Amino acid sequence: MISDVAAVEGLQLALSCDPAQTGDYAALTLARHDGSDDNGRPLVRLLGMARQKKVNYEVQVEQIVAITRKLLLPPYNAGGVTQILDSGGVGKPLLDYLRGASPLTANARGISMHGGMRSWTSQSEGITRASKVDVVTALNNSFLSKRLRYDPDTPGIGLLDQEVLNLRQTTTAAGSV
Question: In the β-sheet with 109-114, what is the strand arrangement from edge to edge?
Fold first, then answer.
């Protein structure tokens, strides 16, 4: 799991989870909001990444609640922790489970990526339906403008490097990306 991070007293953290149970890896990423750039766009620092294989959903939810609880207590004293869960496929029922698991995760947010060209947020579900093109473009722009930052020694950063290098774009006959 994500181990100790530098003191983050009073700062907003985001704990994101890409759930998986059998063949794929479940991944957790911890990020900190570091203010805004001159154009008002958020600056984000990645604090750590971890992934596990063959972990059941109940354990993943327990880990998210435990990490959230830990980050809110000394020595970290985070100003808040937002949980963001990939809520595509099996992620939607897992998001519901996470929200009911603890008052600390009751407001967890979901993101579901799709191959279309439009992104939107369903306020009633608390889920953002994001175009893969929008997400990858925003990720690329964040790296290029240095709004997404990390130290080379960040725990698990090699996982992120590997994932980014593996991104590919294909277009179906119907025009989806």
Answer: 120-122, 127-131, 109-114, 80-86, 12-18, 25-36, 42-53, 148-149
Q: Does the predicted TM-score (pTM) go above 0.85?
A: no
The two structure tokens encoding residue 7: 């003191």
**At residue 163, what are phi and psi to the nearest 5 degrees?**
-65, -45
Which pair of tokens denotes residue 89? 């496929």
By three-state DSSP, how is residue 12 classified? strand
pLDDT digit string, tens, across residues 40-82: 888 888 888 888 888 888 999 999 999 999 999 888 888 889 9
Surface-to-core class of residue 72, CB atoms within 10 Å of its CB (0-12 exposed, 13-18 middle, 19+ buried): middle
Q: Going by DSSP bridges, is the β-strand pair 42-53/80-86 parallel, antiparallel, or unpaired?
A: unpaired
The upper half-sphere exposure of residue 94, i.e. CA atoms within 13 Å in the direction of its Cβ, equals 26
Cβ atoms of residues 112 and 127 within 8 Å: yes
- Per-position b or e across 56-68, b if 16+ CB within 10 A of its CB: ebeebbebbbebb
Which residue type occupies 55? Answer: V
**All structural domains of the chain:** 12-164 (3.30.420)
100/111 Cα distance (integer angstroms): 18
